[in-house]
Design a protein that fits this description.
SAP domain-containing protein; 2 domains; 125 residues; elongated; mainly alpha
């Protein structure tokens, strides 16, 4: 292990930093900030033990063309993977809480209904 990084590894193991602190550490040391808290921890530990940086494995982008506008959101709807990418494509990056709540409360609505509702929320703002 590189001598100058030993203290950082001990700090990491003792303090159990939150995700924001891990991201700051990654940025300070030129490491990628992509991934979950667990991914960041693994990347940091690897860096601290070896002094080498590793790039994250990036999954293929979900295929949003599989989503039909008339398809219902469904009971188990989540804003993960292809759903998030679908809405980003049409409404941008920012999902306000009111819209997310509406998605959760309206599983029988279609993707088209959801896009129209998003536009309604935006008009109110």
């Amino acid at each position: 292990m590189p001598k100058d990084l030993t203290g950082d590894l001990l700090f990491l193991r003792r303090k159990l930093p939150n995700e924001k602190e891990l991201i700051v550490f990654c940025k300070m040391h030129g490491l990628s900030t992509i991934g979950t808290k667990e991914d960041l921890e693994k990347r940091i530990v690897y860096y601290l033990k070896t002094g080498r940086r590793i790039d994250p494995i990036i999954d293929e982008e979900p295929d949003i063309s599989e989503i039909n506008f008339s398809e219902k959101l469904g009971e188990n709807f989540t804003l993960e993977d292809k759903n998030r990418d679908f809405f980003r494509e049409y409404v941008g990056e920012n999902f306000d809480e009111e819209f997310i709540k509406w998605l959760d409360e309206n599983p029988d609505s279609t993707y088209d209904d959801a896009l129209n509702k998003y536009l309604e929320f935006k008009k109110k703002q």
